[in-house]
Amino acid sequence: MKNMNSKYKYIYIGLLGSMLLSFSSCLKDFDPVDTYSDVTEGINDEGKEVVFKDKAAVESHLKTLYNQMRDRQEHWYLDLLLIADAHADNAYGGTTGAEVIPFENNALEGSNSVIDRDWNRYLEDMARANRLIVNIDEVEDATLTTALRERYKAEAKIFRAMILFDMVRIWGSIPVITTEAGDITAETIEDVYDDYFPSQATEEEAYRQIEKDLLEALETAPENDAGDKTRFSKSVARTLLAKVYAEKPIRDYSKVIQYCDAVTADGFDLVDDFSDLFGMNAAGTDAKMRNTKESILEAQFFSGSGNWVTWMFGRDLANWNSNFTWAKWVTPSRDLIKAFETEGDQERFQESVVYYETSWSNYYPSDHYPFMYKCRSAYSSIIKYRYADVLLLKAEALIMGPSDLAGAADIIDRIRQRAGLKKLPANIRGDKEAMLNALLKERRLELAFEGQRWFDLVRLNKVEEVMNAIFAKDSGRKALVYPFNETSYRLPIPQGVIDQNPKIVQNPGY
């Protein structure tokens, strides 16, 4: 290293140390079937060093992408609900921990451990997707046909788009990484420096990359399989496109409607019984249903590979006393419970909130304590995208775009009638602002504890109006530390990331 530019010398040393620590920690979880290694990847039959030695190595790596939906739920589900529901008006933090309460009382800082974990986990997932996308065309295996290569690449692009979509909605300007960094040596560090220390893209640039990935994936991704909703299919890509075009940086309501209609054309529909989505079987030993006609993408769990997240939110109904000795995250708020009661919405309420007796009383009396109920056992599926969300997005586009209030009202009525509620009254159906408020209320009740509420408020510029008022009318909420304002729409970037990468700039307000 004696001839290395001094600008990079200490960066090289620091990176090498952090990489060794990372490698050491990874060894604890080593799985030779699904993890990169010279056994599954890395060396081909001629002894040449490669990324994927054959078709089997590619498929093993693709499996790791799918396994992220089951095995690493912290960032894309557990923490996303903390952001979307407890940082909004649907829930309280739930416990007294310093990592959770700042989401409830708007005291978030870049030092928050949840935010740091999520940023790193998302980037790790992005790197996994990039590894397949960048290297699959170099695989020398005739059984890996052109059609298979393009299909696998499309699935990885959908996965990458999902990651970027979550990240850009949380943080705004983020690194958009579509390449794979080369090895760091004294000779290469100047060439790979930008790969290891990437700049932030603007929000619009991030959304354009998501759009690009999804449009390209639509060409060769697998079709929707009614019997297997765990796949990154064309329908998942269309759903994400509908959601992307509803966001401010590239908003296009005509395209929202186009892709919502395309999802409908793929055969999705509302289930007749709302409990089919989240319920248990009659014996209480398994999920009531998987792969319903309403589910677009879900993570599924079976005996031997249970969903551990359930005990972060409440009881595991398949193992009643497991991990039920400490306060849980994402406790339903009094304001949300009141919203269900005011609407007379019993069907969705009983699938969303449940009461148990506890040994703690952080927010409610211990003998009648509410819990979020949409993830209730180790065998509950986690539904990432479902058709009711798509329908309500179309209603939003009809209200905000071409202004078909009657069409939007018909969609909302369809959702309400499934829940046993009456149609919207005439005085609401003809007023745009009243319809927008009706839509927001319907999305809140329909999609409670599914990671939507905060992002709905942000997308429709309702954060200050709703969140600054909630602390005065919800007696159970922790005192507001900082008022919500225009800088509240994005969360802080982890301070450790900023310390390590001089190109990353903290979001305003933090």
Automatic annotation (TrEMBL):
<dbReference type="Pfam" id="PF14322">
    <property type="entry name" value="SusD-like_3"/>
</dbReference>
<dbReference type="InterPro" id="IPR012944">
    <property type="entry name" value="SusD_RagB_dom"/>
</dbReference>
<keyword id="KW-0472">Membrane</keyword>
<feature type="domain" description="SusD-like N-terminal">
    <location>
        <begin position="57"/>
        <end position="245"/>
    </location>
</feature>
<keyword id="KW-0998">Cell outer membrane</keyword>
<dbReference type="Pfam" id="PF07980">
    <property type="entry name" value="SusD_RagB"/>
</dbReference>
<dbReference type="InterPro" id="IPR033985">
    <property type="entry name" value="SusD-like_N"/>
</dbReference>
<comment type="similarity">
    <text>Belongs to the SusD family.</text>
</comment>
<protein>
    <submittedName>
        <fullName>RagB/SusD family nutrient uptake outer membrane protein</fullName>
    </submittedName>
</protein>
<feature type="signal peptide">
    <location>
        <begin position="1"/>
        <end position="27"/>
    </location>
</feature>
<keyword id="KW-0732">Signal</keyword>
<dbReference type="InterPro" id="IPR011990">
    <property type="entry name" value="TPR-like_helical_dom_sf"/>
</dbReference>
<feature type="domain" description="RagB/SusD">
    <location>
        <begin position="362"/>
        <end position="510"/>
    </location>
</feature>
